[in-house]
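Hi L.,

As promised, DUF6377 domain-containing protein:
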Amino acid sequence: MKDMRLRCIIFLLLFPFVQVQADNNDIMHMPIPCLIKQLDQALEKNSVYVEQKETRINLLKKMLAHTDNLTDRLKLTTELSNEYQYYICDSAMKYIDESWKLVLREGNANHQANVMFTRIRMLLSIGMYSEALEILKLFQVNELSDSLKKQYYHCSEQTYNYLKNYAIYSIYREEYEQKSSLYLDSLLMITTKNSNQYSRTLARKLKMDGDVNGARKIFNELLEIYDIGTRDYSMVASSLSEVVTDIEERKRLLLLSAISDVMSAVKEYKSLRDLAVIFYNEGDIEHAYHYCSICMEDANFYNARHRSLETAQIQPIINRAYSQKIKEQHHRLLICLILISLMFVLLLASFLVLHKQNKKLNYTKQKLQDANNELYALNRELQGLNASLLESNQIKKDYLNRFMILSSSYITSLKQYQSTVYSKIVMGKINELKTNSHSTEMIDDLVRKFYQNFDEAFLTIYPSFMVDLNQLLRENERFELLDNNALPPEFRIFALMRLGITDTESIAKFLQYSTNTVYTYSTKIRRKAINKEDFNKRILLIG
């Protein structure tokens, strides 16, 4: 079973790219589902096969238009009528008429007979049996050559066989069958044995005589000779389907015949119509309707009345079944739609309930989030406060340490100065003492040490103060910072402001400046600021 499925898949993959490359024996043993897919694919590609046929026809037409030779024109019109024979009957008749005009000009009796037999076969294809009989009556059989006799017997047998199939009353059907059988006997007598034509004629004779086993054996042998995609393969497969008893085997043969018909781009056939009937009986209405519709389209395209009538007999039945199936599908679809609508309503109701609950949950979550945000903000404030307290404590510690060191230094200096004064008085160096008391060197040295200690202490706490303050000034007004450990005199004022000392008099006393000097320095710096309005606020944010 796996091997069979694998062969089916491989064949379906290769089929769109080749026409007659597959081995007939492999095709014969393809699973029926694969053959159905094969046929559906061939029908989808029908336009490709038609285009190939039209290309051949157009080439023959161009050749015909460019030749004046009587023999060549007769050959080309014959080929064109053969191409159109199972494709478009009106066009086939047109070129048969052209051939008839040519053979009349030529005056060759054998060629005229060949054209007449071609016309008969065409008339049989379109169901004009009485017209075919009228032409057959024109022949004198004894005057015909063996090759023409073969055509005469074949056309006669075919005519009566078709009449038998369409005869309403049994008395006429038996008469036509007897005449068809006699012409088959005559055809067998003059046909070369071991030829394909002989085998096909013999198989038909055995079938007519009731020897279906013998007929089936010969048809099976012939099916291995012809290639799928040819008219001969289609006809042999169709004939073989009529002598098998197993319905699955008959379906397989009709599928093969229909595939070959599509590949050869013929519009006059019966295999696809017979398949439609089988699929209808099996309950596969979709395939039956599809195939029946194609049969009717092709019959109308070919313009064969008897094929249209044959299809018209079964089409209403299949159409009704297809319509009933569509109604059932619509009914099931309506039920499904109602169920889906109910499910949608339930889903919508569930969604609304969930949405309401979700809103409540979101409200609660928002409340929790707001509370968390407040706690987070409070925590940040506490952290900031702690940091400020720590910073403030650190500043106090640093300044207390430096104040104690500086005070100790001042005490030491005063002790030294007191000792010097005392020594001068004891030694009577009053004038020298007066001179020293008028000197500011000691005071200047103490102030310089004070500034140095203040700058170092402040920059330890705010190391980027000078750079940050400089950035608040316009670019062309900024100070050139040379010594990172010493503040410019103007910067010391704002350093004290950063420490929280904003009173001008306090700043002046602290820095040993005059009040006017403090005001002048601070005003000078503010004028250089990029943003004068909030300059003092930005000072407090440094560090």
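Residues 1-22 have pLDDT under 50 and may be disordered.

Thanks again for sending the construct details.

K.
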